[in-house]
Give the backbone structure.
Amino acid sequence: MDVKLDPSRDDLPLLANTGHILVKHYVLDLDVDFKSQIIEGSIVLFFEPGNRFKKQSSSIEETCQSESNEACKFRMPEPCHNPVTHTSTFSSKMGYDGFSVCGKGVKDTSGKDGNHDNWEQASGISSSKYCCDTGNHGSEDFLLVLDCCDLSVLKVEEVDVAAVPGIEKFARSPTLTVVSEELRNQIIRELVTLPADRWREQLDYYARCSQAPGCGELLFDTDTWSLQIRKTGTQAATDFPHAIRIRYRTKPQGRSVTWTSDQSGRPCVYTMGSPINNRALFPCQEPPVAMSTWQATVRAAASFVVLMSGENSAKPTQLHEGCSSWHYYVTMPMPASTFTIAVGSWAEMKPETCLSNDLATERSLSSSEADFRYVGVCGHMEYPCRFQNASATTQEIIPHRVFAPVCLKGACQETLLRLIPPCLSAAHSVLGTHPFSRLDVLIVPANFPSLGMASPHIIFLSQSTLTGMSHLCGTRLCHEIAHAWFGLAIGARDWTEEWLSEGFATHLEDVFWARAQQLAPREAQEQQELRACLRWRRLQDEVRNSPEEMQVLRPNKEETGCVSDSGSSVIKHGLNPEKAFMQVHYLKGYFLLRFLAKRLGDDTYFSFLRKFVHTFHGQLILSQDFLQMLLENIPEEKRLELSVENIFRDWLESSGIPQPLQRERGAAAACGLARRVSAEVAKWIRVNRRPRKRKRRETEEVFEKLLPDQLVWLLECLLEQKTLKPRTLQSLERTYHLPEQDAEPGK
């Protein structure tokens, strides 16, 4: 696949050459400065050559081209006069000068590309010597390409991991007695492939290696979307340094994080789900195939709390007066785009009284849940997996914490805190083992652009979910909890197949919420049918008011999942500003899964879904992985005309309303809850038509109490009227206490 990248369009380029070399682990060491609105520090990357590496990069031309089509010019590092020589005394803070450009202060004097443009002049070496030689591949150095944007990269160096005390046990070959590139790379190869039961030792050595001194600066340059690094004379990915340190700082205008104030007026910063993901927070490999682990140490003023994607519930360590350090880690490999951080004056919210169901329960499986546990080895790369942990498989409610500004304490205690345990328990009853061992929930600032966002071990919720009744908070919480399985533990191999995350979460939120409320089967079915009616209206509106090319769930068709030889690709429409407001992937994906569940029957479908989760957790999938396994599990008599090809044609690769859905909705009778809404709409239309002075004989309309979703539908229907008189609107507000109701559910 020959990918032609054009950053000026609305497609998002993924330039990292993951086909040649893969990041296996990141160690971040960062300082957060609210005064300058900059995050500064270092990141150490540990590599393993990819399966498709070559002696030299064959795709330099496509990945090493700046926006202005200039030749790639690499900065020649100045000799460093302040080397760090003792690992025992090294830290990113103490060794600050060792990471900055020698002779420079801390002020950012970089040019628009984020690099110090006087390096060539200071070194006295012409940059033309280091241009990307795309015409002579035989003598070309290997080029490491990382996704990077809006960062000031100060220095890149190889890490001397051989200097770490005790590391020699990873040097398996007795012939490698002299410290060399080969020895250092062999040590990293052994370290990144340690078995899962040695994860603590592995994390410890990652941390110790990240503190090791540098052993040579590397040439680097940046363009709009990437950081490019090379070592002179190294022509193969296998020979490229397997551990490098990048010293960098973010920019206040960087698009991966948002600097703002919380609801109490205090400063905070957080990752808000940017279309460019985390490349403006740290240089990384963005393609989802680059599954990695990470650990991070973050320092901030002692008044701030640092929350992050991490398996541990971190507590602050006081470094000196007024400064604290927080440390998090993950052992489950995931795409770098799932990394999340939030730093602010958050307070942990705790219930006023102990909730009876707020205990992590360990119990034996009932017969109806027996298929949660399967014998056999997991299909993912090796890591400490909860699906292989007997106690984890029965844990209905994982440990959880809630954080928010102090001013929202009452709302959190009244609504959110009591909903988390039943929602977690409901999710476990449907899908089985929680993929993650713990959960933090953060109420994010008012500028958060959606109702929620899920990341490993942490969920962001909008303050809008705390208003009104518990319905919106409960459904949104269930949606984000569902992403632990679909979107995180099981990810899309091609990000254009967003429906594999959002369609599943939308379908599962109804099922989780019904169980969390302990609804009777009939009542649950009625409420789910009502929500289907609402979503049907929204999907019709979406199709009428959006570009056809953005209504397709599998826009790359047969090229879905394909990348260039180097591993680079593009995310179609990834930068289109309209995409953030569209729900088509949520809605069409939801209706497809609902259609399939009806065809199989709920019991058969959810039994299959648990089997699918057990088979594919910890892995990346394409649409056909799910559909093929599903069809293999459908009895012949229920399969009828279903095939992967037909589903692709009707649901995933065409714009507009899928024909099977059109036929289904056309034949569907309105559910009882929907019929009651229609009756209420008729009453309000009569009220709206009445003159101000009414005849005395006319009786007052008596309105029924409505569920939150019924109220939303009522208001949508009334908005279709040509006019609504002011007194009708006032009467609606009084009747339904509109200021006290949930916000409109949206996505």
The radius of gyration is 28 Å. The chain is about 30% helix and 20% strand. The first strand starts at residue 12 and ends at 14.
